[in-house]
Specification:
Blueprint: E1 5-12, H1 24-39, E2 49-53, H2 56-59, E3 80-82, H3 86-98, E4 104-112, H4 118-123, H5 138-153, H6 157-171, H7 185-190, E5 193-195, E6 198-199, E7 208-217, H8 218-224, E8 229-238, H9 252-265, H10 270-273, E9 276-278, H11 284-293, H12 302-307, H13 334-346, E10 360-367, E11 373-381
Helix pairs in contact: 3-13, 6-11
Length: 394
């Protein structure tokens, strides 16, 4: 990028199965108040751009962002809304700053999954004539993708279960996560089969929570923090809508999004140049498939990469050191949480889940069934400088 955009502040609420103590606006306010406190910025005086991510059906009302207008500072001011994945909201915010329209943008993602049932919400994503009437949801569609991927490359159920073992253990060190636990491969395989071959411990649980992030131009960023995290590259791509129009074992949309992001970031060898990855493991098998789409290994090679220990926290290319989505992250918030965790790693504020020495990180978010839409963002920090004073998690 010729112009530089930086992340100058990050805040996350704890993610919990139910937050009955707050409504959606109060939940959003927790994250916004925290990120403003960290950066010392004034919501009305310093923030000139606002982008949120939510979803009408998850929130149970048309124009879901209308409920957070005041807390995001959009009363009689502009505010844009993205839906389905918070990484899209970050992408949109970066574009707004690069256009010259904004200099300092607040990005927010929030959802209370406890307010409804995910299969009802996800069923609406399918076409109303054929697939929706069959009762499809993201889990049943994912089962088709997992089965196709495993069959094509000879991936075993134990190799998929190993992803859940790794990420659930990592989530134990994440104070925002609520689903951390130590399990064995046998424990995962013994858990209830939800949609063959996907088992209960291989599915991200329902969660409530919010993430807020502040982006700024280079000039403003350097006035706010002494350790900005730069957006080095971004890419997005859609795949076909109908499941039958895609080979579900392939990752065209992710591969193209990653290629765009790497080209912008001047990354030629992802496996050697990227220090860590936070990706959207809504289902355990997706970590394997997305690793291949991100170009970190060849088709069908991700299970062996995982077995080698390379994707563990202390490995050559740590993947989801935060515990990933399996640790418990709400829908819509998932992608922005991936970005938040990447930023926290780069400013050395990830606590016991820290990957030491990381200077380049990739966040991947997706929306739609079977990864229909993909977004990839590359983050980097300056090689020298003091520790950041503007980023933390709660």
């Amino acid at each position: 990028m010729h112009q530089r955009v930086a992340v100058v502040g990050v805040a996350q609420t704890p993610f919990r199965p139910q937050r009955t103590d707050v409504n959606v606006a109060e939940l959003a306010h927790e994250a916004i108040a925290a990120v403003l406190a960290e950066t010392g910025l004034d919501l009305m005086a310093d923030i000139d751009g606002r982008v949120s991510c939510s979803h009408d059906i998850w929130d149970g009302q048309t124009i879901s962002n209308i409920g957070i207008t005041d807390v995001i500072g959009a009363h009689l001011r502009g505010e844009e809304k993205a839906a389905m994945d918070g990484l899209n909201a970050l992408y949109y915010a970066v574009v707004g700053i690069l256009s010259g329209e904004f200099t300092c943008t607040l990005v927010l993602a929030h959802t209370k999954m406890s307010q409804t049932r995910r299969n009802i919400v996800n069923n609406v994503a399918f076409d109303p004539i054929y697939s929706r009437m069959l009762g499809f949801d993201y889990t049943s569609a994912a089962a088709l993708q997992a089965r196709r991927y495993m069959h094509r490359y000879g991936v075993s159920e134990a190799q998929v279960a190993a992803v859940a073992v790794k990420n659930l253990a990592s989530a134990m060190d994440n104070p925002c996560a609520h689903n951390g636990r130590r399990v064995s491969i046998d424990d995962v395989l013994a858990s209830a089969e939800v949609a063959s071959p996907i088992r209960m411990l291989e599915i991200a649980p329902d969660s409530d929570g919010a993430v807020a992030m502040i982006l700024a131009t280079e000039e403003k960023a350097r006035a706010i923090t002494d350790r900005p995290v730069w957006i080095r590259g971004m890419g997005t791509c859609y795949d076909a809508h109908y499941l039958g129009d895609r080979d579900l074992s392939e990752t065209m949309a992710l591969s193209r999004a990653a290629t765009q992001a790497y080209r912008m970031a001047d990354i030629r060898d992802p496996l050697r140049e990227i220090d860590l990855v936070e990706l959207g493991d809504e289902f355990a098998y997706q970590e394997l498939l997305w690793l291949e789409g991100l170009g970190l290994c060849g088709p069908g090679e991700a299970p062996r990469l995982t077995e080698s220990g390379a994707t563990a926290r202390g490995g050559a290319i740590p993947v989801n050191p935060s515990g990933g989505l399996l640790g418990g992250v709400p829908a819509n918030v998932m992608g922005l949480n991936r970005a938040a965790e990447a930023v926290l790693q780069l400013v050395n504020r990830a606590g016991t889940r820290q990957v030491h020495g990381a200077s380049t990180a990739v966040a991947q978010g997706h929306s739609g069934f079977c990864g229909q839409h993909q977004c990839v963002v590359v983050f980097g920090r300056d090689p020298h400088g003091q520790e950041a004073k503007a980023c933390s998690d709660r």
